[in-house]
Design a protein that fits this description.
480 residues; mainly alpha
């Protein structure tokens, strides 16, 4: 009988060696970098309030430098999966964006708009690759509906309602509550202009309606969806914005025609055809009323007349001819208008925030080259929405059609009014474009490919994890 000696291993010190401590630190850093890359949208949302407030200005500018670093990290961690269809025109846009600052004369007006554009670009990139699971898609849909209802609620209590327009709503305006202490700069009554509320809701209303109709939910949740949609529709009607009505009608027309094409049920065809006919009639009526030459508001000034708008567009074209490449600068329209291109119908003490045409305003603020890159982004987003609307999943198809309808509504609204580039509501346009790319990629990735890491990063993280585990095991005393 052979007796095998029992050999006891020598207990090792529980303290890690210098090499092991360095490896543990590296492993922690890699895990933190992977988490940041996976949570790009969360990081952008954290710094969004600083960029929107633009106060303090130095802190806001410092936050903008975090965004390129975040993009480099995401590219390193996720590899080619971090690329989007927007990358080429977006690079063109970002390279040309500093040129728009060459003609700026008042940095206090330009800085918030510039920070708003930076936030919009960051949201575009983050949302484009931020939806990898059905849970995230469901969450984004609910967030959009909640955001739409919140904007409608804020507009209900903080808007300077204009009387004497399309509908006799003065008694209703008198009964609406008003938040005390609201005093926005460069406004007639200190509140939000109803046209700005209308343009924002025109973009979001088709998306919220698509989510309420096409998504499955419990009875209580569906009741909340219906209430949010009705509140949005009510506030949109209260704005009495002709371009808001026209844009929302066109957006609903696109939404229902999309359902008409996608649905194979006869009752859906009949309902969509009826609603499309009503939308066409409403668009024709609003268009005839808009260009009738009458004042757009009895309580307004010459800026709210067709003659005032035509003169404004004429002056904007002269500006664009003189500042073709650099533009006049973000937020500089009113100062440049009254200083160099004096209008006859608009009083000199009237603050004119934009050219009341979205295409003209983008070209004036950014210059023609950067504006061309911007509208390429919009065109690519529209193509993505059309393609995503052809997907078989009802939730994806409905949300894609809602985004397409919202984008069409926003662009139609921009024919006679505008939300200037870099304005706070303009960030929602970038979110809509990013959502188009996310919906297009979502069916291809599926739930199992949530934020895929690059092969190099996966190998490095796996090797480091194995080495870290080995050193932790070797550092513990063992008995053999």
């Amino acid at each position: 009988m052979t007796l095998w000696p029992i050999v006891r291993s020598r207990p090792r010190s529980p303290r890690l060696s210098a090499d092991g401590a360095w490896t543990a630190t590296t492993h922690t850093i890699l895990r933190g970098a992977s988490w940041l890359a996976r949570s790009e949208l969360l990081v952008v949302l954290v710094i969004a309030p600083v960029l929107l407030a633009a106060r303090p200005l130095l802190l806001a500018y410092a936050a903008t430098f975090l965004i390129p670093l975040l993009w480099l990290l995401v590219r390193k961690v996720r590899g080619r999966s971090a690329s989007t269809v927007y990358d080429a025109p977006l690079l063109h846009f970002l390279v040309l964006l500093p040129l728009s600052q060459a003609a700026v004369t008042d940095i206090s007006l330009a800085a918030p708009k510039l920070l708003g554009l930076v936030l919009g670009v960051a949201l575009l990139r983050a949302v484009s690759r931020g939806l990898g699971t059905r849970r995230s898609l469901w969450l984004v849909g609910w967030v959009i509906v909640a955001l739409t209802a919140s904007i409608a609620l804020v507009g209900l209590v903080a808007t300077d309602w204009l009387s004497g327009k399309l509908l006799p709503l003065e008694p209703l305006y008198a009964r609406l509550p008003r938040v005390p202490g609201v005093a926005l700069p460069r406004t007639s009554g200190g509140g939000i202009h109803p046209n700005e509320v209308a343009g924002t809701l025109a973009l979001l209303f088709p998306i919220s309606l698509a989510v309420a109709v096409s998504w499955r939910a419990r009875a209580a949740l569906r009741l909340l969806l219906v209430a949010a949609v009705l509140l949005t529709a009510l506030v949109l009607v209260l704005t009495q914005s002709r371009m808001g009505y026209l844009g929302a009608s066109c957006g609903l027309l696109v939404l229902f025609l999309g359902w008409l094409v996608a649905s194979r049920r006869r009752w859906a065809w009949v309902l969509a055809a009826m609603l499309a006919g009503a939308s066409v009639a409403g668009i024709r009526l609003l268009g005839a009323n808009l260009f009738s030459g009458a004042s757009l508001s009895e309580a307004g000034n010459n800026l709210d007349t067709l003659g005032g708008r035509l003169e404004l567009w004429d002056r904007a074209l002269y500006m664009l001819r003189d500042f073709s490449y650099t533009g006049i600068g973000l937020g500089q329209f009113s100062r440049v208008l009254h200083a160099l291109y004096v209008p006859f119908l608009i009083p000199p003490d009237t603050w004119v925030p934009h050219a009341h045409n979205f295409v003209l305003q983008v070209a004036l603020d950014l210059g023609i080259p950067a504006a061309a890159a911007f509208f390429v982004l919009v065109a690519v987003g529209m193509v993505r929405m059309v393609r995503a609307a052809a997907r078989p999943e009802p939730a994806i198809r409905g949300l894609a059609l809602g985004c397409l309808g919202g984008l069409v509504a926003f662009l139609v609204f921009g024919l006679g009014d505008a939300i200037a580039p870099g304005a706070k509501p303009g960030a929602l346009l970038w979110v809509t474009l990013g959502l188009a790319e996310a919906l297009w990629v979502f069916p291809r990735t599926g739930a199992a490919a949530d934020h895929p890491l690059s092969a190099q990063w996966r190998t490095r993280e796996a090797v480091d994890h194995v080495g870290h585990r080995r050193r932790r095991l070797n550092s513990c005393p063992t008995d053999a």
